[in-house]
Amino acid sequence: MTLAAGRPYLAIPGPSVIPDRVLRAMHRGSPNIYEGPLIELVAGLMPDLRLVAGTTGHVAIYIGNGHAGWEAANANLFNRGDRALVLAVGQFGLSWANSARAMGVEVEVMDFGKSSPVDMGRVEAALRADTGHRIKAVLTTQVDTASSIKTDIPSLRAAMDAAGHPALLAVDCIASLGCDEFRMDDWGVDVMVSACQKGLMTPPGLAFVWFSEAARLRCGRSDLATPYWAWGPRAEPEEFWQLWDGTAPTSHLYGLREALDMIAEEGLPQVWARHHTLARTVWAAFDAWGAGNPAIAMNVADPAHRGWSVTAARLGAPHATRLRDWCEKQAGVTLGIGLGMAPSTDPAYHGFLRVGHMGHVNAHMTLGALAVMEAGMIALDIPHGEGALSAAVRVIGTGA
Amino acid sequence: MTLAAGRPYLAIPGPSVIPDRVLRAMHRGSPNIYEGPLIELVAGLMPDLRLVAGTTGHVAIYIGNGHAGWEAANANLFNRGDRALVLAVGQFGLSWANSARAMGVEVEVMDFGKSSPVDMGRVEAALRADTGHRIKAVLTTQVDTASSIKTDIPSLRAAMDAAGHPALLAVDCIASLGCDEFRMDDWGVDVMVSACQKGLMTPPGLAFVWFSEAARLRCGRSDLATPYWAWGPRAEPEEFWQLWDGTAPTSHLYGLREALDMIAEEGLPQVWARHHTLARTVWAAFDAWGAGNPAIAMNVADPAHRGWSVTAARLGAPHATRLRDWCEKQAGVTLGIGLGMAPSTDPAYHGFLRVGHMGHVNAHMTLGALAVMEAGMIALDIPHGEGALSAAVRVIGTGA
Amino acid sequence: MTLAAGRPYLAIPGPSVIPDRVLRAMHRGSPNIYEGPLIELVAGLMPDLRLVAGTTGHVAIYIGNGHAGWEAANANLFNRGDRALVLAVGQFGLSWANSARAMGVEVEVMDFGKSSPVDMGRVEAALRADTGHRIKAVLTTQVDTASSIKTDIPSLRAAMDAAGHPALLAVDCIASLGCDEFRMDDWGVDVMVSACQKGLMTPPGLAFVWFSEAARLRCGRSDLATPYWAWGPRAEPEEFWQLWDGTAPTSHLYGLREALDMIAEEGLPQVWARHHTLARTVWAAFDAWGAGNPAIAMNVADPAHRGWSVTAARLGAPHATRLRDWCEKQAGVTLGIGLGMAPSTDPAYHGFLRVGHMGHVNAHMTLGALAVMEAGMIALDIPHGEGALSAAVRVIGTGA
Amino acid sequence: MTLAAGRPYLAIPGPSVIPDRVLRAMHRGSPNIYEGPLIELVAGLMPDLRLVAGTTGHVAIYIGNGHAGWEAANANLFNRGDRALVLAVGQFGLSWANSARAMGVEVEVMDFGKSSPVDMGRVEAALRADTGHRIKAVLTTQVDTASSIKTDIPSLRAAMDAAGHPALLAVDCIASLGCDEFRMDDWGVDVMVSACQKGLMTPPGLAFVWFSEAARLRCGRSDLATPYWAWGPRAEPEEFWQLWDGTAPTSHLYGLREALDMIAEEGLPQVWARHHTLARTVWAAFDAWGAGNPAIAMNVADPAHRGWSVTAARLGAPHATRLRDWCEKQAGVTLGIGLGMAPSTDPAYHGFLRVGHMGHVNAHMTLGALAVMEAGMIALDIPHGEGALSAAVRVIGTGA
């Protein structure tokens, strides 16, 4: 027998659950792309995209995924041969570094491992050591989707300032925008990259690059900025088609409009608070499961360094894979695979998983996922500490 | 702050959660109603509707809700002035009785209260006492949606047989079809009424009356059988329009087709087993909440007499209403109101609620609802026993 | 080769084309049926339903189709044995008569044939002859969907008034509401029946009965008014469930809300004018096809007596059936079958068809259907007059 | 009054009408992206994408629009400084040239104007003149969406062969794939670029590059091939994510799957034949409107050089713009703007329009659009020849 029939819940760190409202908004034939409602809809998107990023700067929309967003940022930030400093705390900083390197950027990676946050002292030292100011930009993730490590962006800005280094600060918020608090202008971020399929609750297909006026002036016209990647015409188009360098992503625009409306209706600070509480709910459960049972542990020890949208954890191989299978096939919950902790060809790979709690997620979804995980541990005889659900429920019930 | 943003879960005893597949199937323009695919689709529905009811008999489809189903059954079962024996164990037997009475049927109600099952001995005695066989049919609910009491249909059939009474047995399976085990032919049921919006996972709008060949012959042409209610042409139409006495419910037919496919794919016995296990999960939680805390209790003490699709419970006024409000507004779960236990104008009304676990429901949805309820009890300081979620999770994890 | 791939156009006289907006609105999970947005939505429907009927009276909504609407009207209008005068000009007056008769009403039918309008003089005479005022109500169609004959309701009212007869006037606007001009109060109509699947652009599933306060008082509590049909609680419910005598048709309510919004946005007089112009477009084409070619002719000779939502026509057997087949399979247009002109078992049956132009229909859809019909006549060597499309286009282009 | 209420018809040359089936397929929540049905769906897409292009070669899918497709092709075809020969017959060859030039390719454009086809003799001569074989590839459009000129690809291949030039042949089929006959392998095409939003009937968001094994070997690893554009991993991925260089475009994959199913059900040769006939229908109307009235004329005089998916035409300023406005606002048909014939700031701009007849289009849609255009000409007093609709209908009815 399986108890999975019913609405499946996808608790992976993206693509996230698409709200019914967004799906309904996208269920729409092709519109007039020359004039009328679509043009007005797009005009309204821009201020709302700025709002969600906390900036009065520019935003360029790309038909693409997160990797496209990196490439777009790279293409505008750098000329061939420019130097980048990449801060890696998991998988995706490394991937961004690879993207830049393959495009002809000279990349220096500071790798802080898979479970530790960025060491701001080392960053500051590295920047001070770059006396020739060869480093044009520092690239980092706010939340690394693989490790779930959160980088403290204001501290990073402070370190850069302390070093007196003029490098631009470019942040990947793909896994965190619309989940974790982020304030581009207040925090002195020059360039920010994100995509629509996580906190922005829209099916994969759009990437975004926000950039400050200062960044625009500093970057000028890069020799990497091909017509598709150049951010200028997209952010300040003379004609509508330049927003997308060609045909508009009509269906996604309807979806994004609805998703941004939902965020506005709830209120961005409330969206962040919801993610924070739900994250703490998940953490409380893992703390209990791992108490007296060190085989189970979250990847990031210190809650201050954990992202609010995804929790990477270790269960010991092959338990994580077995539990993922059970939850999907027996109970209707799909959890994320472990990523970057061990190669997928390695037995150790089966010891990691990730719980997504991003975007269109509420107490019911999260508590249900945790309860299903515990049921699976029982079904599969995976040793685990007691009291996880009581602890989780207490976070929801008391807010503490 | 609210933690309700995200997918809402409607845990009421109907209308139940409509599967995305069903909604998608219904998102379809009007078809050719004279020939082609729609006609073929309808031809395929009939055997599947028989299968889900466990009968080789007839089935008539009505555009209507459950009340329409009662009226349709009444109109065919009875002539004006005929006598019915109604067995009531909650709200809906009484409502069916009212319907029959208003149509001119002479109705005798045996009311077993709100929390006790049908006493088969009393039924047998009543039938024996009807030496003139004036009672033409015995009407009862398999599961009363208000009280969640299940009537043991095979025992009822046995009591009728023991009494040697020729009355027809008519059962309302509105709240139970596609949830609780039901075998119309094996159990000797003559007429069965149901609707599409609960176990059949389709938006409200269709009612069904299944009837055996014997019932058809016994009932003949009732003087209550108006064109809309007469089951003959609907079950054995000469022309397509007679199936619906007019225009076909095109949109609902697409939905019903998809829902019946889903049941067939899962397998009806597995569907029943899933509902049984999920019901036991809910019961385990209530047992724990009520342990040492008699204010909280399920309405039906004996699990053998509880339906598998809905659980009515008492929390003490005004706790039930407060908890319902909290779950919906703070956590995304809508629970059912108490029905028939106290008038809605009475303070005691706020002491009851119902949890629906019918149709498109899985371990994640059910466990999440229970966890949310416990979070709400904590938030609202509603005294409750410990260990409910552990107990619930154990049912899922062990099947025991 | 077929040229039918592409969006099919259903040009039958109902169910009509469902607007994408309506389908999208219906693509929605089950809501809380106890409180919240659904309750508010329903409150807003009532004034808009009155508006579309042109009345300040009552409206009862039924889960059902048009036949259910007749039965509902009959059940409230009549007591068993009451007398009705039915004016028949095609198929559906006769069907309504049959419905009433089967329910126990004594029905007198005045049948004006299939192609001639109601003769008001004969009606007045009949009413005058009923000196005992045994006739409780006069029943008629505004537009008979089969014959496409329109009955002049103000003239009928005048005839009844001239006769000084107190009978209630009950009109079936199933095929005309939201298409042809109709003003219930201004025209002295006491009871009006309609359904949602034609001019109201919603999938089949809802019927409506509007009734004046005078009708309510005159009818009192009929002995035919079973709980499902009684209009009182539906029009003036004490509790929400009484609006539907049970479970609400949630999905249809969302659809109807959207459809009424669309009518309000366009403006009811403009909706009528659009139907009138599109009807004249169809008529212009038929006039041309039939010029010098008497085998092709519209069923109703005088435009003043033609409905604005459907046009019945004769092409000669078997041309109509062949043309219908060709249009659907080769060009993507489904036309309506002829109805009531000849039995479907008679060869003559294949000589009739109907073009629907009701509800969500515009110049493109109508002109395209006419052009496809002419292409089919060419393909099938069906003799026809020239210039039909030029004539049709001229109606659209000049409005004349 | 407006006669536009009803289903709007978007007759622009892309994005084209999205079939309801495709929209329904896309109305689906996010799936498991690690394993299960999505992975299988994608595996099935590849052979069908090859089939529609007529190749056994490779195909790379990009999240992007047509411009992204050009950039992807350029990035793999060329190293910085390589030389391209671009054949321009309207707007989009020039745009592709601009894209290549901006990426660092040395581009030679042969511009044949806006209304004349490629002169194969001149191409052959140019290639012969390139004795050093500096030209690495010849780029051209099969159908230029702006001018609607079709390039005869087999003749172009013959010219290249006659010149004995080793340049690769790269063709943009954005406006023609799934509309006009195209046989990549048979015609000796090395690289082909297309996108999903025209003949492939899916909302904008996917671009495709097909390439032969020979092209793959010739191109090797270009220094322009950034990670996002490199076709190797996309066409021959080791892991699923490499197909998209990151997150999969889940929603679009469901849509594309359905669209390819529709093409397979109809049969690709039949799809081409349908487009050809519908194109001839449009041409017949324009021929009649323009007869004796030279202000109205199609842009391409010779039908052999006209694409089957779009027809560009001249009506004289400001008639084209006025007619477009009237058709949309009064009759529900949106026509395409003229593109590339005159700057949008020039009064002459208002003299051109385009009719799209691509993808999900049938006789009803096309004939309806033509009839609406004629109605508009009448309404706006735009002089035009007689008999256009009769001529158009004759094409459909006789196939001739």
Automatic annotation (TrEMBL), chains A, B, C, D:
Organism domain of life: Bacteria
GO molecular function, one term: transaminase activity
Coiled-coil region: none
Gene3D superfamilies hit by this protein: Aspartate Aminotransferase, domain 1, Type I PLP-dependent aspartate aminotransferase-like (Major domain)
Keywords: Aminotransferase, Pyridoxal phosphate, Transferase
Pfam families found in the cross-reference section: Aminotran_5
Residue stretches spanning the membrane: none
Cofactor: pyridoxal 5'-phosphate
InterPro entries: Aminotrans_V_dom, PyrdxlP-dep_Trfase, PyrdxlP-dep_Trfase_major, PyrdxlP-dep_Trfase_small, SP_NH2Trfase/AEP_transaminase
Domain Aminotransferase class V: 71-342
Entry similarity comment: Belongs to the class-V pyridoxal-phosphate-dependent aminotransferase family.
Record's protein name: Aminotransferase class V-fold PLP-dependent enzyme
Organism of this sequence: Rhodobacter calidifons
